[in-house]
Amino acid sequence: MxxxxxxxxxxxxxxDGFVSGQDLSDLLGISRAAVSKHxxxxxxxxxxxxxxxxxxxxxxxxxxxPLEVEVRPYLDTRTIGSQxxxxxxxxxxxxYLDELPLTECSDGMVVVADTxxxxxxxxxxxxxxxxxxxxxxxxxxxxxxxxxxxxxxxLVAAASIIDTLKxxxxxxxxxxxxxxxxxxxxxxxxxxxxxxxxxxDVVHKAIxxxxxxxxxxxxxxxxELRDQSTSLLAETGKPLHRPVVLAALLNSIDxxxxxxxxxxxxxxxxxxxxxxxxxxxxxxxxxxGKKVKGTVQGISxxxxxxxxxxxxxxxxxSGEMNT
Length: 323
Prior knowledge:
By secondary structure, this protein is an alpha+beta fold.
């Protein structure tokens, strides 16, 4: 934990009364004026902090910003969360990890932003990323698996999201639109972006980027997205505490990821099949410049989409699907 705001919050959270500005200054190795600036920034984020001359600062109430100090108490993981980086704003959490030197990477590190200026999904589509509303995060993985298996992690992440929703919002009937979207009533709730840096036989970085709409009202989406987007707030009528949701997601990703390392997709596949959308639907898939038309039959053991065209079945592993 290196973010000064998070360090201040942790110190205030662990103290029933006031913490002096000098104590915080000594803890961080910065001036008292800099401490006051960080405290002001926390207030602007929404934290209620009482400051009294000659007494110091006292935390009155927290908010749902997914800082490490808010998320860490709820984490129960083996791998995910080995490092946790939060920034108020980033161009893209995937970009951050993509550009991070390998010497600074660790398996399971998590990068979270409260807003993204250039959030993106598959096919370089823009991902709407307003502040103080949703979750935008990326997980860096370094699996000892062949590079050709890494795209399966998009389905591992999708299964993890479905598992989490079943627990925290059981009334929300979500499904998986292959290969990377989570839909509710045909509207997008979440998306997964899986990217990789690898050589022929070794994976240096597998980056799972996830965006999930939590507390954004539908009216706050851009007009062109309102008919095709939803949020957990819109589906349940209640706001959710983002740190708790994020911790639940990371716990679920940790379980599914470690199962994938040991058994491939075997553990996640039943859940994926149960929640796979568009089965028995006629679709067209653009895959590497080739158009595949047919009826969706299901998911193969290695994560491909099985398509039936006439009397012939084929498995597609990547592409853009349309009905």
